[in-house]
Design brief:
49% helix, 3 domains, eight-stranded mixed sheet, Butyryl-Coa Dehydrogenase, subunit A, domain 1, 8 strands
């Protein structure tokens, strides 16, 4: 009798490979170009590009599973991947403001050659535009096209990008605000290597400088009056919150895996048995397992609702992102606390997991915005 052997899981295989190199990229702060090339070769960079364009045609359920698996291995790689998956999850949907031929062209390029894309929004003076204010980056009319000038900070994956979706304001008498698609091979773009952070050190989140960069007129994909941006997009919020939650949950699962191995293997002479035999450590491991199980249900539920075209209100997506990421931080911090010096040693991955998972608090929506928004709604304000 011949027993069928299932084919290897490409995501698992890639994750194992990425794990082996994650510490090296973190230590040096180097962008993992080979990881991104491998993701493209496996068809995962184009995972959320429609099948008619050569992509995987996946929705948020599949995308979140992939980002979570890669996040457990190398969260910097997962973050760069997630940004591209989010953009393609949104620009091809019915009702997108993007001209269909332009969205199709970008989709084909991502599917065929792994072209990465990310939204570039944060600026030195403005911070995140989600808190209000007009961007300093300008779009100036030039014939049928636009000239883009400005600086974006924290441009995740900047050295790897083929496109940036750049948040600008126009120089019109009544300025409009919105997104312009900028090819990164256009003259006038400069990457300044400013990223030197505690966590996600390999994400290449450098400054991107635009100096009178010309783009065709149809590349102004979504310009609106400023007040038209005050209402959050439920789909966009769901995609962003789900993939960020999945990524940092992956970091927590990696930390839990190391912690459990440590408890099984560490047997102090004074105890004469592994730490895993002590109720204190069993309780900690069990509490972490509970939070991981809760996270899995929250991420899966939000992803499934979104794939069914019934995303929750943006505020509820924010609840999921905040809850999952705070659970993830608690998991890693508990593992560090109970593993002692071993947890903070650079020869072990747990200290890296701690630095990486704390970055979850920086991604929008941040805790204070979620809490304040919910409070105003509860009070009817």
């Amino acid at each position: 009798m011949t027993v069928a052997v299932p084919p290897p899981d490409p995501v698992r295989t890639l994750a194992e490979d990425f794990t082996a190199r994650a510490a090296e990229h973190d230590r040096a702060g180097t962008v993992p170009h080979s990881n991104l090339a491998a993701l493209h070769a496996a068809g995962l960079v184009g995972l959320t590009v429609p099948r008619r364009l050569g992509g995987g045609g996946a929705g948020l359920v599949r995308a979140s599973a992939v980002v979570g698996a890669i996040g457990a291995a190398d969260p910097a790689t997962a973050l760069v991947l997630a940004m591209t998956l989010i953009q393609h999850g949104l620009i091809h949907r019915d009702g997108s403001s993007w001209p269909r031929p332009l969205a199709d062209a970008v989709g084909r390029e991502t599917a065929t050659r792994g072209a990465l894309i990310n939204a570039l929004r944060v600026e030195p003076e403005l911070g995140t535009p989600s808190r209000g204010g007009l961007p300093a980056t300008r779009a100036r009319r030039d014939g049928d096209g636009w000239r883009i000038t400005g600086r974006k900070i924290y441009s995740t994956g900047a050295p790897t990008l083929a496109y940036g979706v750049v948040f600008v304001r126009t120089d019109e008498d009544a300025p409009r605000v919105g997104n312009v698609l900028v090819p990164f091979d256009a003259p006038g773009i400069r990457i300044e290597e400013t990223w030197d952070h505690m966590g996600l050190r390999a994400s290449g989140s450098h400054d991107t400088v635009f100096e009178d960069v010309f783009v065709p007129g149809d590349h102004a994909v979504d310009l609106r009056p400023p007040e038209a941006w005050k209402r959050p997009d439920a789909q966009q919020q769901a995609w962003s919150c789900t993939l960020l939650a999945a990524l940092y949950d992956g970091v927590a699962r990696a930390a839990q895996g190391w912690f459990l191995r440590y408890l099984r293997e560490r047997a102090p002479g004074s105890l004469g048995a592994p730490l895993a035999s002590l109720p204190r450590f069993q309780e900690a491991a069990g509490e972490n397992k509970r939070l991981i199980a809760v996270n899995a249900r929250l991420v899966a539920g939000l992803a499934a609702e979104t794939d069914a075209d019934t995303p929750p209100a943006p505020q509820e997506s924010g609840f999921v992102k905040l809850t999952v990421t705070e659970n993830a931080i608690a998991i890693v911090q508990r593992a560090v606390e109970l593993s002692g010096n071993a947890g903070l040693s650079r020869k072990n991955p747990l200290e890296r997991h701690l630095r990486d998972v704390l970055c979850a608090r920086i991604h929008w929506p941040q805790a204070d915005a979620v809490h304040a928004g919910a409070g105003r709604a509860a009070l009817g304000l």
